[in-house]
Structures are given as C-alpha cells and as structure tokens.
Write a structure and sequence with these properties.
92 residues, alpha+beta, two-stranded antiparallel ribbon, 3 helices, 4 strands, 57% helix, globular
Length: 92
C-alpha cells in the first residue's frame, strides 16, 4: 500500500477534528496540540508508527515485559497521526 490512502484518511480525520486548517498549522485533538502534517511528514511518522506497532504487538504476544517507553512513543505517534493507538484507526 502506498502512503496515498492512509494520508487521504488522515486528511479526512483532520478536517473533521480541526475543521478548515492549513497544513503546518496547529489544532487540538484529545486535549493535545497537534500539527496538521504535510504528506512527507505524515509518511515518515506513519511508517514509524507501523514499525513500532508491529514491535509492540510482537513483544506483547511473546509474553516479554515491555518497557513503558515503547508504549508511550506509540501513543505519542498515534496522537500526531490522529489515530487510536489501540485499534490503528483514524479518529473520527
């Protein structure tokens, strides 16, 4: 999958959450100040989120004790991407 489809979903979520807001400007989502990302910024953060999510799920499934910092980073990336870190869906 290319980044086009997830970015389109992100923009839909951003428009619902922020209303008309230019890329690069800040809005509030779930009580946090969040920048509306351009396609390149989104792509890098989205790939990092997916990689960290795979690692987190792999560690969780293996029964290994997980450092809270991994979950906190996953949560922070999800907030920037307007995603729910538990189900990997964009916020609506």
């Amino acid at each position: 999958m290319t980044i086009n489809e997830p970015y389109a979903q992100y923009l839909e979520a951003a428009n619902r959450i922020f209303g008309p807001l230019a890329v690069g400007k800040y809005g509030v989502s779930q009580g946090k100040l969040v920048k509306k990302l351009d396609r390149d910024e989104f792509g890098g953060k989205y790939e990092a989120f997916k990689d960290l999510d795979r690692l987190y799920k792999s560690l969780s499934n293996s029964g290994v004790t997980i450092d809270d910092a991994i979950y906190q980073e996953l949560k922070a990336l999800a907030a920037e991407l307007l995603m729910d870190e538990k189900n990997n869906r964009f916020l609506w």
